Amino acid sequence: MATDLKTLQSESIPVKFNNIVKRFVSHSGQKDFFAVKNVTLNIEPGQLVTVLGPSGCGKTTTLRMLAGFEMPTSGQIMIGDQDVTHTPPNKRNVGMVFQSYALFPHLTVFENVAYGLQVKKVSKTELLQRVQQVLMIMNLLELKDRMPASLSGGQQQRVALARAVVTEPKVLLFDEPLSNLDAKLREYMRDELRKIQQRLGITSLYVTHDQAEAMAISDKVVIMNKGEIEQMGTPWEIYAKPTSRFVADFMGKANFLPATVRQVEPSKLVLDLMGEILEVEKDQTFPVKNGNQVTCVIRPEFWHIDAEGKLKGKVTRATYLGNYVEYEVSLNKETIVVVDYQHYMRYGFYREGDDVQLSLKKERISILP
């Protein structure tokens, strides 16, 4: 893929959503539906920000408002220093990669990629140069005369991306672009998309419902729920330091266990978790006092199967998944999920009904009210 990218690179610019609302008016006597409620989001120049959430959370509507396919009911959308809130799509200089690829079936790969430049009435010499270059970047040069129907899913996706970037957009939008690919190809293509986005330095907004995909490609992840932003941060912050039960539960598996605050210190909390005294980092955003009940968010991999572990439980289910074993363990009337990446390789894995002793990676525990 080594080639000169200078003619495709442009100065990265920021994108801002300022208090955006999208309301769909009901004509059946029911309440109006708010697809997006008071969303404020800043995307730094060159960043790839992923909007993640369940179906109906407002993520696709947010993307479509940036593209210009939907107009906000109120609020402001800025691309660089330009207010594009009510600007038509063809005046926004935004490229979009669709879930369905949306390739023209009667045009070759070359013609599909060149289409946007033809619409812009770019000179033939410049068109040939830019299309040739982007085909090289996407490893599509040898396929330039093929028709879309003769391409694999991954090849079609690369053509769709090539068509989006050849026009040198200021912002690149991805609407669940990998959802039609099989698991292995999806993993490969997400890495390729990320490499290309970083090399070109295009400010990007990516919408997906796949948590692993969001974690793998994003500079920042935005979790939406019922039209509002629940939390935003780096992938590590979203996963390791969720600020709500919804975020913790949505971003992979999590155990929610009750604990009592025994002592509050400047930099740590002392907790009683099922009889075990734990010291955890004091970084929660809500006030706590001695005697308060809190909820510990413990990811399955934060448990450690340990012969010296003080917490004793019984395996109720064991699932062997190749590089790890996932257990459900009954622990003090609670059922928890435990993931074992190492213990089973040396000692084998436990069966249903076996007793286990567990300890915790205490520095990884998050606290919710």
From TrEMBL:
Q: What is its EC number?
A: 7.6.2.11
A single MF term (Gene Ontology): ATP binding
Residues forming the ABC transporter domain are 15-251
Look at the named UniProt entry and state the broad enzyme category this protein falls under: translocase
User: Pfam families, from UniProt?
Assistant: ABC_tran, TOBE_2
Supply the alphabetized keyword list: ATP-binding, Cell inner membrane, Cell membrane, Membrane, Nucleotide-binding, Translocase, Transport
Reaction equation(s) it catalyzes? ATP + H2O + polyamine-[polyamine-binding protein]Side 1 = ADP + phosphate + polyamineSide 2 + [polyamine-binding protein]Side 1
- Which InterPro entries does the entry mention? AAA+_ATPase (IPR003593), ABC_SmlMolc_Importer (IPR050093), ABC_transporter-like_ATP-bd (IPR003439), ABC_transporter-like_CS (IPR017871), Mo/tungstate-bd_C_term_dom (IPR008995), P-loop_NTPase (IPR027417), PotA-like (IPR005893), Transp-assoc_OB_typ2 (IPR013611)
Q: How does it assemble?
A: The complex is composed of two ATP-binding proteins (PotA), two transmembrane proteins (PotB and PotC) and a solute-binding protein (PotD).
Q: What does this protein do?
A: Part of the ABC transporter complex PotABCD involved in spermidine/putrescine import. Responsible for energy coupling to the transport system.
Matches recorded under NCBIfam families: potA
* Family per similarity comment: Belongs to the ABC transporter superfamily. Spermidine/putrescine importer (TC 3.A.1.11.1) family.
Q: Which PANTHER family match?
A: SPERMIDINE/PUTRESCINE IMPORT ATP-BINDING PROTEIN POTA (PTHR42781), THIAMINE IMPORT ATP-BINDING PROTEIN THIQ (PTHR42781:SF1)
Please state what the protein is called.
Spermidine/putrescine import ATP-binding protein PotA
Organism of provenance: Paenibacillus radicis
Its taxonomic placement starts with: Bacteria, Bacillati, Bacillota, Bacilli, Bacillales
